[in-house]
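Title: Comparing notes on inverse folding

I've been comparing how different people in this forum approach sequence design from structure. To keep things fair, I'm posting one structure and asking everyone to reply with a full sequence. Here's the target:
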């Protein structure tokens, strides 16, 4: 059995209905149980009378109901807005205002202090507090499947609308090019309001596979996390490189602790060469897949498998080849695709635009070669027909008149033998960069210099021009991470200021 993300219907396959479908924070469901609960929930949506194209907010954290609700809403062409309980209520309230959502599905059973005309509780009962005024969004007969809200530069959340056809295009690509099947067991660690989670959610549904949800508390406890993946025979690890990097230091993070693991899939951040090499050395024979793409292009647009040969050839790893039915263009003054410039993505996977945000849509979205196109704000270049990600436009800082690539500094930091990982952050005042601060994690179980920070400065001075050498080196035991398991640069600056 599988759930087709295009038709929104369950289809019978040769896969046994008793096979595990979902391992959530509160219960496990096989495919028969999962399909029955989805149909029951969809019938309740019919009773309430929610029309196709209306946005419904799903609020929770890794409960089975969260996934049941997603499939049920898809089956009725009602689009969902996933919001994790880790997100502040003030932001939830603002998302409700922007979207015009009249319905809240509360998966964790604890009431939230935000008024909705219709509330569906964790026990699948509903209350209609006032007559809803349903707003609907269907563009050219292509219903929206989901809208994920990302951070905006102005502080205002932006709702990225992904259509039914775009999600189906993504699911088709996963089936054709990633080598996954209904036999796989997908590891979820990202919050369901973060688009990285769409990888494992889509594969689980569309392929008839198994999905293992892991709570935030489980993810922060490596021993419990690894034991849970081993217990469910997980085969595909999906995360940011930062999340996996933390586990590289754990003894249980090895083939003996994860005997069923077949692939590590990364997106959302740069995968450092040194990190990939260590992973390949630790898990011989397991595939390492590197991908790239913004939320606005349905999770990802490029794919490549990273091997030791790839690591040896490219100091900065490629993020891969463009998916079918989509394309990439590097926008720069020279027109040379091998020189760094802004990455433009066009194709069926590009979002139809931000929800109720005409100004940003005019700025970011356009038509190229008859296809939807998006200005990513990311910098990259093409080499050997592959895309190389080169940071953000806003990560190219200007200091004392010089244009500086922060990731170039990070690369040289990671080349220092006793440095395990590093990230460089600009310290600004009134939007002007005043100095650069590098935060460094040192390797364990090796002999370190008497003054590591001074030694790092000396080595950087030999490798980089003077204007690129950071104004400060801060040694830390670990990096702080935000709710999306990316390195939290704001908190790093707080650490620096407090010192």
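Reply #1:
Here's my take.
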């Amino acid at each position: 059995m599988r759930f087709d993300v295009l038709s929104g219907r369950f289809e019978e396959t040769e896969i046994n209905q008793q096979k595990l479908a979902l391992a959530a924070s509160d219960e496990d469901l096989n495919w028969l149980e999962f399909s029955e609960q989805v149909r029951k929930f969809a019938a309740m949506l019919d009773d309430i009378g929610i029309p196709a194209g209306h946005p419904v907010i799903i609020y929770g954290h890794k409960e089975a109901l969260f996934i049941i609700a997603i499939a049920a809403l898809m089956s009725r062409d009602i689009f969902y807005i996933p919001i994790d309980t880790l997100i502040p209520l003030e932001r939830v309230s603002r998302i409700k205002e922007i979207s015009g959502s009249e319905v809240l599905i509360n998966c964790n059973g604890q009431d939230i202090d935000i008024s909705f005309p219709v509330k569906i509780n964790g026990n699948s009962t509903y209350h209609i507090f006032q007559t809803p005024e349903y707003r609907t969004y269907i563009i050219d007969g292509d219903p929206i499947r989901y809208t994920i809200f990302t951070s905006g530069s102005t502080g205002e959340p932006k709702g990225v609308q992904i259509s039914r056809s775009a999600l189906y295009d993504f699911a088709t690509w996963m089936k054709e090019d990633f080598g996954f099947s209904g036999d796989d067991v997908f590891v979820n660690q990202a919050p369901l309001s973060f688009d990285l989670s769409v990888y494992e959610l889509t594969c689980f549904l569309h392929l008839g596979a198994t999905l293992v949800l892991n709570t935030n508390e489980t993810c922060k406890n490596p021993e419990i996390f690894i034991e849970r993946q081993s217990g469910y025979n997980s085969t595909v690890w999906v995360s940011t490189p930062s999340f996996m990097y933390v586990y590289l230091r754990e003894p249980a993070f090895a083939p003996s602790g994860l005997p069923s693991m077949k692939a590590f899939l990364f997106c959302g951040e740069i995968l450092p060469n040194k990190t990939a090499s260590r992973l390949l050395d630790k898990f011989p024979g397991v595939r390492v897949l590197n991908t790239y793409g913004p939320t606005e292009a349905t999770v990802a647009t490029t794919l490549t498998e990273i091997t030791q040969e790839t690591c040896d050839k490219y100091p900065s790893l490629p993020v891969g080849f463009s998916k079918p039915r989509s394309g990439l263009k590097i926008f720069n003054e020279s027109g040379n695709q091998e020189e760094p410039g802004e990455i433009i993505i066009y194709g069926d996977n590009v979002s139809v635009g931000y929800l109720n945000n005409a100004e940003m849509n005019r700025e970011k979205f356009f038509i190229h070669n008859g296809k939807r196109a998006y200005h990513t704000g990311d910098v990259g270049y093409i080499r050997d027909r592959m895309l190389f990600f080169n940071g953000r436009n806003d990560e190219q800082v200007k200091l004392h008149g010089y244009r500086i690539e922060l990731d170039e500094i990070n690369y040289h930091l990671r080349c220092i033998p006793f440095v395990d990982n590093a990230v460089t952050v600009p310290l600004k005042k009134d939007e002007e960069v005043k100095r650069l601060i590098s935060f460094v994690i040192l390797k364990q179980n090796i002999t370190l210099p008497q003054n590591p920070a001074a030694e790092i400065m000396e080595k950087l001075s030999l490798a980089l021009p003077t204007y690129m050498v950071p104004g400060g080196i801060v040694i830390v035991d670990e990096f702080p991470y935000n709710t999306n398991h990316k390195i939290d640069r704001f908190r790093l600056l707080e650490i620096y200021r407090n010192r």
